[in-house]
Amino acid sequence: MIQYIFGLPVYIGSFENPPRVIDEVEYCRNNVKPKRKTKIVEELGGVQDEDEGILFDLRSYINETKYINSEIVKHTKQFLKELNIEKLNLTTKICRDEKCTSLDCTDIWFNIYNKGDHTSEHCHLGDSDDEIFCGPSESMFSFNYMAKYNPKTDAGFYFSNPSPMHIFYSEIEENVPQLKKSIKLNIKEGQIVIFPSCFYHFVERHTVDNQRMTLSGNLKKSSNTYIDTLIKEKC
Which SS3 state, helix, strand or coil, does residue 177 take? Predict the structure, then answer.
C-alpha cells in the first residue's frame, strides 16, 4: 500500500515468509566477514560515524538469497502497479542489466544495530558534484526490510522533511504532522518499505539490548526498459 510522506510516495508491503529471510541471511552471516558501512556510505556521499551499526554486504550471495530476491521483485512490481507506472522495470543489479549473472552485482546489504548504534541522515544518491549525479546509473528507489524489529522498543526509521521551512512551523507541528522536521515510519517486523532514493532518512539511536536487523538496497532503472530501448534505436 502506498502512502505519501512530505508529498513523496512511500510503499509498505509484507513478506509472506519472514523466517526464510532470517534463514538466508544467517547463512550469509556465517560465510562473510562483517564490516562497518564505510564503503557504501562513502559511495553515497555520506559521512561515516563509528556507531552506525555493522553491515554484511550480500552482493556475492545472490544464489543464497533467492527468496529475498523474489520478494523484492514482487513488491517492486506491486509498488509500480499502485503508482500506475507501466513500461518501467527496476532492478537491484548495479549494472542495470536484469539478465546479468554476475555474483557481485546486486545492490543489497544487511544491517545489524546493537545498543547505541544509529544511522545518520542520508539519501541514496551520489554527490551532487559528481558527473553521474541523477544520471541513468543512479538508483531511482531504495528499500528497507525490517527483519528483526520491535516497533515499541527498537530505534525508529524516520523520513526528513525536504523543506527547510519546517522550522517556521515548529509551534504548530503537533497539529499538522506534515510540517514536522521528520516523521517516524509506521512499519512492523516482516514489512518492506520502498521510497524514492532522493528522500533523506535516518535511524534514531538504538537504546535496547536486543539486536535490530534490517535488509536494505537500491533499485535502478533497468537498461532494458522501454525508454532506454527507444534511445538505443535512435542512436
Answer: helix
Residue 42: alpha-carbon gap to chain centroid: 16
For the chain, what is the total number of helices (H) and then of strands (E)?
A: 4, 13
Q: What is d(CA 25, CA 163) in angstroms, rounded to the nearest whole number? A: 37
Cell 545518520 -> residue: 120
Cα–Cα distance, 52 to 66 (Å, whole number): 27
Task: Identify the sign of the CA torsion 68, 137, 202, 2.
Answer: negative
pTM: 0.84
**CA nearest 59: which of 12, 10, 11, 104?**
104
- Would you say 109 and 36 are in contact if contact means Cβ atoms under 8 Å apart? no
Burial of residue 85 (number of CB atoms within 10 Å: 0-12, 13-18, 19+): exposed
134-179 residue pLDDT tens: 667 789 999 999 999 999 999 999 999 988 777 788 888 888 878 8
Q: Is there a contact between 109 and 217 (Cβ–Cβ < 8 Å)?
A: yes
